[in-house]
Design brief:
Number of domains: 1
Helix content: 25-40%
CATH architecture: 3-Layer(aba) Sandwich
Order of helices and strands: EEEHEEHEEEHEHHEHEHHEEEHHH
Number of strands: 14
Distance between the termini: 38 Å
Shape: globular
CATH topology: UDP-N-acetylmuramoyl-L-alanine:D-glutamate ligase
Length: about 325
Amino acid sequence: MAENKLDIITIGESLIEFSTNQKLEDAECLHKYYGGDSLVVAVAASRLKSKVGFVTCLGNDAFKDYLLKSWKTEELDISCISTSDDKNGIYLVSREPGEAKEFIYYRKKIAPAKLSIANIDEDYIKSASVIYASGVTQSLSLTAREAVKKAFMLAKENGVLTAYDSNFSSLVTSKESAKEQFEEILPYIDILFISDKHDLQILLGIESIENAVKIFSDRGIQTVVVKSSKNRGYYVNYMQNMTFIPYYTNTVVDTTSTGDAFNGAYLHAITKSYTPIESAKIAAIAAGLQAQGIGAIKSTPHFDEVYNIYKSEA
């Protein structure tokens, strides 16, 4: 259990990352790291000096100790992590310059799929200011989906904010499942992160950002952040007032997990009493800095990098 109050708890999977700057078919060497959308959110917030807990089920394989050491280095609270004899998941990614990224996921029958309501402790949930999960977490298994719902229900019962990113990817789930999972969790969401490129048409059958925001607001979601790759920025709707925050940079090296870095930085800022608009500006800087590096977590920025820029532009 966390000894002190946490700012944020994220729930989800961890994956071992093997990456290359060549095509996968040509690569003779792959670089090892780790990723996972909810884990990136946790690390992004922790590097900005938030107190963050990460809940997952860890595989008892050759990567177990590597992951545990890495998370301790990132100062994550891992007191509610369980272990399983199943393997940890793996993904391969190719970032060949000038070419579309290649992804291959190996995430069937992996340890994080063993996430269940047994991992959700009410006292632990009550220890946080915000609980975060995503559609990716729900897609791991039926028990993981139940765990997310249980965590969000407990959060709502105990006055803890909930934050959710639909984070749809056809590589991990179907459109039908994504929509079903989203409808199930929607009544419990306080802060929604959603993409205009991947999510609006799939989840709502519409493309209008304004109409989508109205639908979500009418259904009780107090903060909606629409990540717009088309308009290169973020629409932040809080209590039915919408503001547009542009991308921090046009210099992009690798967009892997920039949305997750945004989420982590946004939740960090919200728990530090910044307004939704200020939080989005801080998060846009974090995401922009991450986009200038390579990898899901390697390039996630630290406190001084983000706040030096934010203070200079304030």
